[in-house]
Amino acid sequence: MRMTKTAKTIAAAALLTLLTACGSKAADFDVHALADDLAANITYADSLSPMDLDTAKMFINLSDVNAVDGAVYEGSGGTAEEIIVIECASAEDTKAAENALKTRVAEQIESFTDYVPEELTKLNAAVIKTSGKYAVLSVSDTPDAAKAIIDKYMK
């Protein structure tokens, strides 16, 4: 059976739409692996320590986010350096997580302005990225290196 030119065009368009839709979904990844990668492969002035997700939810004000999983590394408080990687239950939760991370950075800027103003450079270059059900925050002296690591996990 031969396909007409119109049928071929429709079939090609349908295939292209299907492939595009599949490609737009964020690939799943282990949030702990990304956080560990950032912690291991970026130089931090501070010593970062892991924080459990329940504590982080209160500390970072993620109470409005339905987080399925998360990995958080916090500094001693002498710097603004931190890593937050969250897997959310839905797109709405990802948006809420993004807003919470932006609020976190804004609050840190306010806190460090008089406390340790040198940290404002890191905070003003904080990397916040969302994709699919994931939200990430990285605050470090090397935001470009952080972006490169995050991009390996999140397209």
Could you describe the 3D structure shown?
Helix content is 51%, strand content 19%. The protein is globular, with a radius of gyration of 20 Å. It is an alpha+beta fold and 155 residues long. A five-stranded antiparallel sheet has the order 1-2-3-5-4, with helices on both faces. A hairpin with a 2-residue loop joins strand 4 (127-131) and strand 5 (134-139). It has six helices and five strands, in the order H-H-E-H-E-E-H-H-E-E-H. Helix 2 (31-41) packs antiparallel against helix 6 (143-153). The chain has one domain. The termini are far apart.
What is the N-to-C succession of helices and strands? HHEHEEHHEEH
- Low-pLDDT residue intervals, each spanning 5 or more residues: 5-25
Continuous helix count: 6
Major beta sheet, specifics?
Answer: 5 strands, antiparallel
Number of domains: 1
Structural class: alpha+beta
Q: What percentage of amino acids are in beta strands?
A: 15-25%
How big is the Rg?
Answer: 20 Å
Strand numbers in spatial order across the main sheet? 1-2-3-5-4
Distance between the termini: 41 Å
| Beta strands, count | 5
Helix content: 40-55%
Shape: globular
- Average pLDDT rating: 86
Highlighted features:
155 residues; alpha+beta; 6 helices; 5 strands; globular
Question: How would you concisely characterize the structure shown here?
Answer:
The protein is of the alpha+beta class and 155 residues long.
How are the SSEs placed, and which strands pair?
Blueprint: H1 5-24, H2 31-41, E1 49-51, H3 53-59, E2 67-74, E3 82-88, H4 91-115, H5 120-124, E4 127-131, E5 134-139, H6 143-153
Antiparallel strand pairs: 1-2, 2-3, 3-5, 4-5
